[in-house]
Design brief:
Number of domains: 1
Distance between the termini: 15 Å
CATH architecture: 2-Layer Sandwich
Radius of gyration: 14 Å
Largest sheet: 5 strands, mixed
Oligomer: single chain
Order of helices and strands: EEEHEHEHH
Number of helices: 4
Strand order of the largest sheet: 3-2-1-4-5
CATH topology: Nucleotidyltransferase, domain 5
CATH class: Alpha Beta
Length: about 140
C-alpha cells in the first residue's frame, strides 16, 4: 500500500490532501490551523498514523523562474518542526499554479450547484498531490 499526504502550508492554515490506498488519486481531506507549538504537528501525526501514510508531499511556493518565493522560508521552517513529530519521508514539490487551479476547481464545482464543501487550501493540497502522483516521481 502506498498512501501519500500532501500539505499546502500557509501562514494561517494548512491544506491537507490524501491519496487513495494505491497512491493514484488525490482528494482534499481537511484544513488545519497553523498555530505556534506542536498542535498542528500532532494533528498531522494522528492522521498519518490512522491513514497509514507512507510519504508526505509539501508544496513549495516557487516563483515563475523556479527561485524561492517569499513563503518558502516559512514552509521550510514548518517542515523542520513537523519532522520532529513524524517518521515518514517528507519531500518538497513545486506548487506553482496550485492555488489558481484550486480556485478554478471550486468555481466549477459551485457552478454545478454543488456546495464547495472543500476549503480552497485542501483543494490546493489535492492539486499538489495529484501533480506529484501524475509525474511518476516515485517510479
Amino acid at each position: 500500500m502506498t498512501r501519500y499526504m500532501a500539505l499546502d502550508v500557509g501562514d494561517e492554515r494548512i491544506g491537507v490532501a490524501l491519496s487513495d490506498e494505491l497512491g493514484m488519486l488525490a482528494r482534499p481531506l481537511t484544513v488545519l490551523a497553523r498555530v505556534a507549538g506542536p498542535g498542528s504537528f500532532l494533528e498531522l501525526a494522528e492522521i498519518i498514523d490512522s491513514k497509514d501514510v507512507t510519504r508526505i508531499i509539501v508544496g513549495l511556493p516557487l516563483r515563475e523562474d523556479r527561485t524561492p518565493g517569499k513563503q518558502v522560508a516559512s514552509t521550510k521552517a514548518y517542515v523542520r518542526g513537523l519532522r520532529e513529530h513524524v517518521q515518514v519521508p517528507i519531500v518538497y514539490w513545486d506548487e506553482r499554479y496550485s492555488t489558481a487551479r484550486a480556485r478554478e476547481i471550486v468555481r466549477e464545482t459551485s457552478r454545478r450547484n454543488r456546495p464547495a464543501r472543500d476549503d480552497l487550501d485542501a483543494v490546493a493540497a489535492a492539486v499538489i498531490l495529484q501533480d506529484y502522483i501524475d509525474s511518476g516521481a516515485e517510479e
